[in-house]
Amino acid sequence: MSQKNTEVKYNQYQTTINELTSKINQLKSDQEEHKIVIETLSKTSEERRCFRMIGGALIEKTVGETKPVLDLKFQNISKTLDSLTNELTKIINEFEKWKKDENIKIIKQ
């Protein structure tokens, strides 16, 4: 493999890893926000009014109507987070194997 091709492939791996890491961190933040809201609403009466942001608009609902939706979103975020974490691990392992197979050494300046 030529040096140019090696550099391109190395940079592609790095970019993919950085993008996945960024997305995982964003989802962890979203998951934590949902967890806090769910915990807060669980201590609140089911009939109490609450507001939920949907596409930039505030929608008025009851806590009883909102909690199931938030629980579902929390579960979906968790599943996506697990999937992306597995994908990141796979790509990192693939990257390390590629570096070993191609005998690539990182030289820090």
UniProtKB/TrEMBL annotation:
A Gene Ontology molecular function term of the record: unfolded protein binding
Protein name: Prefoldin subunit 2
Keyword Chaperone attached: yes
Coiled coil location: 10-37, 74-101
UniProt keywords, alphabetically: Chaperone, Coiled coil
Protein family: Belongs to the prefoldin subunit beta family.
Matching InterPro entries: PFD2 (IPR027235), PFD_beta-like (IPR002777), Prefoldin (IPR009053)
